[in-house]
Amino acid sequence: MRSAHRNLDLFLSLGDRLGRGVVFISEETASRGKSYEWIPSRALRQIAFQLLTMWEMTREAWRSKRTDLVFVFEHKPWYAYPLYAVCLLRRQTVFFIVHGIQQTHGQSPFHRLGLQVLRTIEKHCDVWPIHLEISDREVQGVPRFTKSIVVPLPLPREAPIERARIRPGGPLRIGILGILRADKPVEPLLDILQACAKAHPDVQLAFGSPKWQVPERLQQALAERGIDYADTDEPEHYNVFVHSLDIVVAWFERDSFYFRPSGILNDAIAGGCFVVAPDYPVLSVQMGVPACCGEPCASLAELPQALERAIDQVLHAGDLASRFDAWRAWRADERVMQTLCAGIQDALAQTSRSFSRA
Question: Does pTM top 0.85 for this prediction?
């Protein structure tokens, strides 16, 4: 068993920490890599994938007869009703990681219904949301749960690659990286980076993404703007590319990332890169707590100015290395697990008191 988000695999040690049995449930099931290409419609392929995933997740919960604590890494409420039913039938205490489900609830009536069902269950049952970086109580404009355990997003599982900070007068590498998706647009950033490079002759531009994802049109656009391309399909190539950069520029659509963390920002800052990204609530905490390791901006129009401030920080801030050290220490494995265990133990104590009163 493992999470679909590798850095969350840290939580697999939760049972040993608590000294009790924990069953872990994840969308990373045995059939996750199964091909559905024989199904003619993309929508039907997605439905088949979701049904099979939920069947396997529910089956895992059903097998946990002797375990009273369930930990759900990731799930989609709009097709998780069988999973909820099994856990409620067994009167199990459930903890689930909130990763975007409060953000994407408005995408369809099914999404809205699923989140509403989950919020109702959470309100009245022994079900506890675990928020990454920041509680929903501190954010306006999202449907809130009644309970909240907050932990930092853990550091990447890969071992860090040590590298020296920029030498005065040396080349400064600014890059874009990650999987290409509609909610993480890349092309609007290219002209901004090109203009930045023209204003700063010592700036080098780079773009990293799996080669199979990069269309010929985008490769041509990169070449025209003098942006080096690196294939990051293999994890080791991705890590080397991240650690070759000094500044990472990322943009995320508000409808998908207003209230969710970014793995790209996590990887970049952990690797010693200053970041420039939207000023959404969770991303702002990722960049700024406990020390400033990024420059938030409100819109693409403001991105050039934010990038200039980032360059100034990287070249002239004398405390940048200590900021990165503080940022990593805040998200170090031991501290994250202590925070999580404290939140879960407090939740279990509240549950025990509720049963005592009943």
Answer: yes
